[in-house]
Amino acid sequence: MTYNDGLADDIRAVIGDHPALTERQMFGGIAFMVQGNMAVGVSGDELMVRVGKEAHDEAVSRPGARIFDMGPRPMRGWIAVSPAGLASDQALLAWVRQGVGYAESLPAR
């Protein structure tokens, strides 16, 4: 599967020159890691966001969001956001900041 290069570039622009940022090809897409923890990624045309279990229910209720599932089981704490949920720059900014903030709250790997 390929991923949306434009969305990946938009994520890079939002994250900027974060000192602990790395990128890794995974899930057939690209993942943006902060301190070795996945923050956000792109799979196809969808944004993947790691929000954590505590923020899961609120996050999945937002426009364009659904539980991220890889295989038969949904992954609580991980959200997939469709292009419709990223219709504004503010929406993308909010999702990326949430994912980066969660990754920063975890111990470095």
Features of this protein?
alpha+beta, 3 helices, Aspartate Aminotransferase, domain 1
Description:
With about 110 residues, the protein is an alpha+beta fold. It has a single domain, classed as Aspartate Aminotransferase, domain 1, CATH 3.90.1150.30. About 30% of the residues lie in helices and about 35% in strands. The chain has a six-stranded antiparallel beta sheet. Helix 1 crosses helix 3.
Fold blueprint:
Blueprint (H helix, E strand, L loop, with lengths): L4 H11 L5 E6 L2 E6 L2 E7 L2 E5 L5 H5 L4 E5 L4 E8 L7 H17 L4
Antiparallel strand pairs: 1-2, 2-3, 3-4, 4-6, 5-6
Helix pairs in contact: 1-3
Quick overview:
With 109 residues, the protein is α+β, with helices and mostly antiparallel strands.
Roughly how much helix do the residues carry, as a percent range?
Answer: 25-40%
Main pleated sheet: 6 strands, antiparallel
Strand content: 25-35%
The low-confidence runs, each spanning 5 or more residues with pLDDT under 50, are none
Count the DSSP helices.
Answer: 3
Shape: globular
| CATH classification, class level | Alpha Beta
Radius of gyration: 13 Å
CA distance, first residue to last residue: 27 Å
Architecture per CATH nomenclature, i.e. the level-2 architecture: Alpha-Beta Complex
Order of helices and strands: HEEEEHEEH
Overall mean confidence score, pLDDT? 94
Tell me the total number of β-strands. 6
Q: Any idea of the CATH topology?
A: Aspartate Aminotransferase, domain 1
Overall structural class, as computed from helix and strand content, comes to alpha+beta
Number of domains: 1
Task: Going across the biggest sheet, name each strand in turn.
Answer: 1-2-3-4-6-5
